[in-house]
Amino acid sequence: MNVFRILGDVSHLLAIIILLLKIHKSKSCAGISGKSQILFALVFTTRYLDLFTTFISAYNTVMKVIFLICAYITVYMIYVKFRKTFDSENDSFRLEFLLVPVTGLSFLENHSFTPLEILWTFSIYLESVAILPQLFMISKTGEAETITTHYLFFLGLYRALYIANWVWRYYTENFYDQIAVVSGVVQTIFYCDFFYLYVTKVLKGKKLSLPMPV
């Protein structure tokens, strides 16, 4: 395990903690896409089924369990505990537009045609687009709270660090996973415009705002 992988995991965990603290302290999930959080919960569920079949390391097991628990706590807080603050009107991205092609692709392009492998591949493809409902919601409302932008920044940073991890592994271990790398690059591309706005606005103390769609 290299430093890029560890920093990526830390960034990912920090993003989730920021989101949970934001919801808990404000007692509101305003500005948060529940649909994106459902997709992330589905990503972790389908990816970490190997918890029941394979032991890699204590670190690996603990991190998987933490991500699973946090994902479902987030969904619970949005749809149950603070459901009255949930902005369902603007969280209107149609999930079937993501789930149908991702499911089909996971059957067509995978490492081996076995249930666990197909579900793992499904999780990789789905994670690359799971943030789209959140970005769509921001584009509809035209703005995002500062704490929400911090969450998105660290989520995007996690993916960028994982790309560095794959480059490192390619040169040091001659390891290359085309499915993970291509999906990770696609996911990072979705964050590029947001990264620019984060650096030019949020880090300068300005509120992130976007032109309202016509």
TrEMBL record:
It comes from Mesitornis unicolor (brown roatelo). Its main location: membrane. GO terms for cellular component: COPI-coated vesicle membrane; endoplasmic reticulum membrane; Golgi membrane. Pfam families: ER_lumen_recept. The lineage of its organism: Eukaryota, Metazoa, Chordata, Craniata, Vertebrata. Keywords: Cytoplasmic vesicle, Endoplasmic reticulum, ER-Golgi transport, Membrane, Protein transport, Receptor, Transmembrane, Transmembrane helix, Transport. This is ER lumen protein-retaining receptor. GO terms for biological process: protein retention in ER lumen; protein transport; vesicle-mediated transport. Coiled coil: none annotated. The keyword Phosphoprotein does not apply. Belongs to the ERD2 family. It is a multi-pass membrane protein. The chain crosses the membrane at residues 62-80, 120-138, 150-168, 180-199. One of its GO terms (molecular function) is ER retention sequence binding. The keyword Amino-acid biosynthesis does not apply. It is found in: Cytoplasmic vesicle, COPI-coated vesicle membrane; Endoplasmic reticulum membrane; Golgi apparatus membrane. PANTHER family: ER LUMEN PROTEIN RETAINING RECEPTOR (PTHR10585).
